[in-house]
Amino acid sequence: MLRMSKMTDYGIVLMTELARAEGGTRTTRELAARTRVPLPSASKVLKGLLQAGLVVSHRGANGGYGLARPPASLSLAELVASLEGPVSLTECGEHTPGGAPCELESVCQVRGHWRLINQAIQEALGRLTLADLIAPVPRMPERLVGLGTPSRSAVSTAPPSASSPSSGVRS
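RE: above sequence
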């Protein structure tokens, strides 16, 4: 099973709570209580998000964390990459400085396909923003239709016909 880390999941949950604050700040304790993310984990994740420049920190009596940019300008790809590193199913073509390439890379028959798959995932995450994640659920599938996933209205029970203009295929 492919899965992102629990800390990345926590980071997304914390960021959505900050987005709901609509420009306000929340303390680590408030965020942990509202989201039920354990306080030590919330603290660790928020420090990472601060270092990545996705949140800002304010000191003092009214201090806390806030978003560094509006929710509509923070993509899910940027958020996940700040906590997980580069988003990719495989390491094909994802060499970090000083990192060694895969031992099979020079003879791999599917390397190009993995690059396309990794690119599609990156683009899908790049299309979704923090604003999308705090919107009601029905909004998200509309944003994903451009990825080749058929919308519910485009799915037909009849088999598509080559001569039919409503074959269910979107361009």
